[in-house]
Amino acid sequence: MNIQPIEKKQMHEMIYEQLKSGILDGDFSPGEKLNQDELAQKLGVSRMPVRDALKLLVNDGLIENTIHRGFTVTEFSKETLEDVLYVRSIIEQEAVLQAKRNFTQVRTLLLENILLKASAAVEKENLYEARKLNAEFHFTIYETVESRILLELIQKLWHRVPNYAMYIKLETAVKSLETHNIILDCLKNGDFKNASIAMRNHIFPV
Length: 206
Hints:
Blueprint: H1 11-24, H2 36-43, H3 47-60, E1 63-66, E2 70-73, H4 78-99, H5 105-123, H6 127-142, H7 148-158, H8 170-188, H9 192-203
Helix pairs in contact: 1-3, 2-3, 4-7, 4-9, 5-6, 5-8, 6-8, 8-9
């Protein structure tokens, strides 16, 4: 039996993932200063892995590092959000088309279950849960694409803006859920062309 050693995740990678989730979920406010010493104390680690994690977040565009202010959470303008959504609409339309090759009945059942949970979340006006299920719906489709580069691009674009920027009002979540059901109906009927068009218009209406 050929047993391979288990790779340990680097400390700065774990800190990076935790901070990224916090930024995307809105635990840190836009423009908020991220003090390395305070973060290290709260996380119970040394300053070095925190600094390495912050550098990764700078590369993601989630935080900025300036001489006078240090590390701060990026402030997202309306223009930035629209730009990201526009690019997302183009490549995610293609992702839906590519998903046809590996799409299965099991995938359809997964999507149905996600939308049932999303419907319950919207009914309870739980926007936090609705945002999580929104992402889960999209990536349950995209995970079937054969192009890993395409999937990575989509993931990076999703991480360019915080999750809370997606559903600010309940009406937005309701409309999104309706469109998700339309997309799912197209997928169930094998109509990936119209599913892709619906996806593009869903992300960036024209």
